[in-house]
Amino acid sequence: MTVSILQSNYIPWKGYFDIIAKSDVFVIYDEVQFTKNDWRNRNLIKTQEGLQWLSIPVRQQNLNQKIFETNISFNNWSKKHKSTIQTNYGKSTYFKDFKDVIFEVYDTPLTNLSEINRLFIEKICEICEIKTKIIDSRELKLEGDKVGRLMDACKKLNATKYISGPAAKNYMNEALFSENNIELEWMDYNNYKEYNQLYPPFEHGVSILDLIFNEGPNARSFLKY
After folding, report:
1. Closest CA to 127 of 207, 189, 212, 26
2. How far apart, in whole angstroms, are the C-alpha atoms of residue 83 and residue 86?
3. Residues 115-167 pLDDT 10s
4. Distances (CA, A) of 210 to 91, 92, 217
5. Residues near 38 by Cβ (< 8 Å), separated by ≥ 6?
6. How many CB atoms are located within 10 Å of the residue 34 CB?
7. For 156, phi and psi rounded to 5 degrees?
8. Which domain holds residue 114?
9. Are 111 and 56 in contact (CB under 8 A)?
């Protein structure tokens, strides 16, 4: 059983979906502090003028507010995001084929950031034919410190392998995984293939919507797994 755990991101980049695709169970871990100017509520797209942020406006009521407690601050954000996407991807090869399925998610009347992010993640997994089971960490009632909660999730899911993003090397206790007979695998984000992207030069670190609108049904072949 291969498990991965990440905080939810808004329309994440392709590497996020590679971690999901490599896993049997993917845990969305939104029980941690919401951080401003982070990937939780924004991501990048390509435009003729360069990279542009798409940001969901959120209400941060206190510094200890968790991601799953975070709500949007006004309701017309989705209309603005659809308009920006239409302007910058309207001429991409597969925009017409995937516009409706993506815009349908934007039209869903949700006000909670975690719920919005999860809906996009699940829809994109469907488009990319990723069958991984996705659960919310709160279902597991996790206990312990930062690394302890990851281990608790692995044990409760009977994991034999845990896939982690490379940024976690700063704090991960690798010996703890070895002691519990759980293989720890570090995700490698190098050597992605380039695809037919608008507005050169090529940029890997943008929302996966860029890949979907430009490559359509071929999008999965530009992921690693």
Report:
1. 212
2. 5
3. 999 999 999 999 999 999 999 999 999 998 888 899 999 999 999 999 999 98
4. 12, 9, 13
5. none
6. 23
7. -70, -25
8. 2-222
9. no
Which amino acid type is present at position 8?
A: S
Q: What's the start-to-end Cα distance of the chain, in Å?
A: 16
Determine the Cα–Cα distance for residues 55 and 67; give it in Å rounded to an integer.
Answer: 15
Q: What's the pLDDT tens digit per position in 185-210?
A: 999 999 999 999 999 999 999 999 99
Which helix (H) or strand (E) segment holds residue 53: the answer is: strand 50-55
Between 80 and 170, the more confident residue is: 80
In this predicted structure, what is the pLDDT of residue 23? 98
Give the span between the Cα atoms of 63 and 129, in whole angstroms. 37
Dist CA 39 CA 43 (whole Å): 6
What does the block give as tokens for 116? 């919005």
The label of the residue with tokens 């940001």 reads 55
Residues contacting 106, CB < 8 A, separation 6+: 78, 81, 82
Cross-strand pairs, 162: 3, 184
Adjacent-strand bridge partners of 184? 162
Cα separation, 173 vs 99, whole angstroms: 43
> In angstroms, rounded to a whole number, what is the distance separating the alpha carbons of residues 4 and 133?
11
Domain total of the chain? 1
Beta strand residue intervals within 19-86, DSSP E: 25-28, 42-47, 50-55, 58-59, 71-72
